Amino acid sequence: MNGGSYVALTPWQYRGSDLGTHRFYYYYNTDNLLHRREVSIPSEAAVLHFPAVTFGSELRWTTLQPDTKAFHFYPPDSPTRR
C-alpha cells in the first residue's frame, strides 16, 4: 500500500459459515501483488479445529492441513497441527 507491503499471515482466512458451507478468503501473490479469492467449502468436506461462527463475523487466519477425506483448518499457532 503506497509503496509498502501487505503480507497475509497465512494463505487462508476464515470468513464464517452458513447454509452447509464454510467460507474463506484464499490469498496468493503474483508479480509482488497480493490477490485473494473467495472460496466456499461444503461443511462435510472441511473440519474446523476452532468454533464455527456465522458468516460476516470477525475474520480469522487459519492454516490448511489436507488429508484424503477432508480439509482440516487450524489456528496458525495451534500446537495440535500435524
Brief overview:
The chain is an all-beta fold and 82 residues long. Helices cover 0% and strands 50% of the residues.
Features:
82 residues, mainly beta, 6-stranded mixed sheet, 6 strands, 0% helix
What does this structure look like?
The protein is mainly β. The chain has strands at residues 12-18, 21-30, 33-42, 46-48, 60-66, 71-74. A six-stranded mixed sheet has the order 3-2-1-5-6-4, with no helix packed on it. A hairpin with a 2-residue loop joins β1 (12-18) and β2 (21-30). The radius of gyration is 13 Å and the shape is globular. The mean pLDDT is 85.
How many β-strands, per DSSP? Answer: 6
Instruction: Assign a percent range to the helix content.
Output: under 10%
Radius of gyration: 13 Å
For the largest beta-sheet, the strand count, sense and barrel status come to: 6 strands, mixed
How does the overall form come out from the CA principal axes?
globular
